[in-house]
Design brief:
This protein is mainly α. It is built from 13 helices and no strands.
């Protein structure tokens, strides 16, 4: 809170949503606002989740969507820093050291700048950090709920950024299942629903565009 107040007051750092007007990764704002579901369905160049969230912000907060997205990104940042701190504690890092490192990262100009920029880089970084924490929780407690949250976080990342494909999901989820000695069948069942969501994306791409991959337009 102190660092964000400082940057707001002395650096005049505001949320930058200008990417919505010209970034190729973001669909036309008018289409997202007026024809969201069909725009998401026929989107060839990107996974659906990031544009879906922006479209919901445009529909729910048509006159104040920038403020809504700014609040959402601040919440993502809070989850990022909390996840980073708890992850270090889980891995045996001294509490004071973990606090200092998290504070430095939280107040870093680069961190704050990404937090104030409408793009998927910051949510993906936060998601990777939180997913690592969820993986540790799942393997250390052997609770299915933690495992399901871990696999769900992987699915959310696949549905956000095209470089994280179904194969990446399979590798990360498969490694977790193999590491859960004695609970592999239970862990595999908890990965079923997230896996279905992940597989649905290349199937949709194949049916609509003749290729299972996302982002072919860039190639």
């Amino acid at each position: 809170i102190l660092s964000r107040t400082f940057y707001w007051t002395f650096a005049d750092l505001r949320f930058d949503a200008t990417t919505l007007a010209y970034f190729a990764q973001l669909m036309d704002s008018h289409l997202l606002k007026t024809d969201l579901l069909r725009t998401i369905l026929y989107m060839h160049s990107q996974p659906p989740l990031f544009n879906l969230l922006i479209g919901l912000a445009l529909k729910i907060f048509p006159s104040s969507y920038e403020l809504a997205l700014s609040i959402a990104y601040t919440a993502v940042g809070f989850a990022f820093m909390t996840g980073l701190y708890l992850l270090m504690l889980s891995l045996g890092v001294n509490r004071v050291v973990a606090f200092v490192l998290t504070a430095i990262h939280a107040a870093s100009p680069t961190t704050v700048r990404y937090e104030k920029w409408l793009f998927y880089a910051y949510p993906v970084a936060a998601g990777l950090c939180v997913s690592a924490l969820l993986l540790h929780r799942a393997l250390s407690t052997r609770r299915t709920a933690w495992a399901f949250l871990y696999f769900s976080s992987l699915a959310a990342l696949v549905l956000t950024r095209s470089t994280m494909t179904w194969f990446w999901f399979l590798a990360c989820a498969g490694a977790a299942v193999l590491a859960a000695t004695g609970d592999r069948a239970r862990f595999a069942r908890s990965a079923l629903l997230p896996a279905i969501l992940v597989v649905a994306l290349p199937i949709k791409q194949l049916v609509l565009f003749g290729t299972p991959t996302v982002g072919d337009v860039y190639a």
